[in-house]
Amino acid sequence: MNSTQFSKILFIQALEQSDPQTQYIPSSTRQRATQHAKSIAPQLQPSFPESSIQFINHRAESLWNFLSSTYPMITESFRGAQVNIPSLMVMIPAFAAGLLINGLGTSQQVNLLNFPLLLLLLWNIGIYALTFLLPLLGKDPTGPLLRSMSTGLAKLLYIFGKGPWQQIALPGSTGREWVLRSAERFMNLWWSQGHPVIISRVRHLLHMGAACLALGIILSMYVRGLVFDYQATWESTFLSAGQVHTVLHGLLGPAAWLLSFPFPPVEDLAQLQDPGQGSAAPWIHLWALTAFVGIVVPRIILACLSARSAHKAADSFTLPLDEPYYLQLLSTERGQGIQIDIMPYSYEPSPAALDCLGQCLLNLLGNQATLHWRDPLPYGQERIPWLKATSSPQTVVLVCNLAQTPEAEVHGELFRALQASIESSNGQHHLLLVLDQEPYRHMADQAQIRGRQQTWQRLANEYHLQIVPFNAKDTSPDQFLQKAQAALWPPKGEMT
User: What is the rounded distance in angstroms from the CA atom of residue 151 to the CA atom of residue 157?
Assistant: First the structure.
């Protein structure tokens, strides 16, 4: 999947999620797009990511054709929301800055040991060391740094006009606020999902900027050398002429070899020691070539590698199919053969809670799964007669009452018994621990609810379980799916 397809899918996701009441994208339109995608890709198999991605891509294209004609502003907003900084926007200012920098110093006497290009050369050598050595040690501080820069850029875009899309004269007024909200949501999705591409592009821009800055400084040295007479000298409190010769030969010797230029001997350097001086022209040539070979060439190579990495990452985007939005899109085709057993513990959930929880679980595991509503398990009972080892996938959903105080001797033993039964299965069984907040919210304030929930979680931590808080009135489906996906036990990496 290339970056254009990936961006369009994310934008459709942002448009749908910004319209939960189906005010702008009717449910019938969404269903028709789903049916159209199924007709194009009839062999949808959610267990195969390629098939799911193909289905989602066709559905996004179908919705895009409808929305772009119904709301023309969407097309312009989509273009404006895709932040792509051209390389020239960095290269030209960097080159101009290099031209304005006096690479020979403020006076017409050039100190060979305090040459302005020396600091720039040392800085770049340090960057090369970080680039190549730290990844070998399993560390890469530039990744978090560039991620911070990317996040900072997104915040700047938001502060200065709330992103580029706010500056666009969007045609029409119907749904304008919805489209702008969607564009902002799309930016958040893009920055979170496209980090590999973004970081590679930022690296490319930084390398090209550094190369152009060095080129500008080199050119400025020759321009100034044409109209001013620069003299070379050096001075040092601690270094002798022989030691200075060793230092300069180490830095500039390779450039002298490339130019077939005989490097000045120690005697000539001794004559340049302050107050002595000589023509700076040969030294300018040596420093210019050293900067070109040590800064410009490596930076261009690194920029090409970063561009290649960005291009490769842009052509191999993968959708996060385990996120709530995609789980719900694919739920109608998932869940075949899966059995979901919902078992309340020592209480009777309300009908609204049961209905809402059932729909959320079908979105999580697939609409083709079979729901079984089990009778509440009596307090203190650990044996579950209907839980047997089967060859078909089974998910046990234990629904606990937040109004109850968790007890290690009771609830903890039940967790242990359920885990033991699931571990003895064929590796396709799962446990999900749901905490119903509804019975407790009528008798406690928010602080008490949070405290009781933390008490439950501390007990669950002893069994490596994650609790999924649930309230039929307040919990959104996306919120439940995100937490439940991470709370399924055993985790995917531990399945056998």
Answer: 10
